[in-house]
Amino acid sequence: MSLHVDHYEYTGANGSGKPLLLIHGWGMHGGMWGGVAEQLAQHFRVMAVDLPGHGFSADLSRFPFPASNFTIDSIVDELSAQFDEPLAVCGWSLGGQVALRWAMRYPQQVSRLVMVASTPSFVRREGWDHALSVEILHEFADNLQHHYVLTLKRFLALQVRGGEQEREWLTVLRDALFSRGEPDLAALKCGLEILRDLDLRSALPDVMQPVLVMAGERDTLTPQLAAQYLASHTPNGQLALIKGAAHAPFLSHPDEFMKHMMKFLHE
Prior knowledge:
267 residues, alpha/beta, Rossmann fold, 10 helices
């Protein structure tokens, strides 16, 4: 059984255009892309995936790997199996790490890569301070078991913190959070483990595809310095910094997001 990659597709006026896949972040779903997906669909064949355990893919029994083997490589392998042509991939937050790992693992399949509010390592490590403390992720993991909904809502609050119109965008995110049902608890735990353990810094020089790193100026989850590092350590990377934005610039600043996307995808 395949991932849900076809339930949220915009083909544009004539069904033509190059394929573009959008990958959401931890605890979210493909519907979060909203209006920018519709705008992009005027120029590309756009698809937005629901990752295993999220949105319409919440039933993990559908997948060829059990929850105990919910790793970034198992996700990438399942995504890769859905496509028989090269495509551009845009990933947000955890989705950015999935997209980056996909470009590393199957370089012939990913033609262009966009990482939105993402990073090669979400937690602090030796020589890497541009990240969250690992204790924050441990706290999220502990709280998931007892305060499932509150933990997800707290994560949403972190995503908008410091951005323009913070309260308004927090309301938007909260309204959209469960619009495709509740994510699977096992998938959420495994997603946090990916965020905790994954460190892709050493492999960045081998990513030869054109890479656009899009970052919110006020993002507290993935700091600017992490985005700068990501863009400067990929051979064909470039950075787009969106002023006033926090962790979801495609929602809070869609015009700026679209400007950078269109320029990059048409290069």
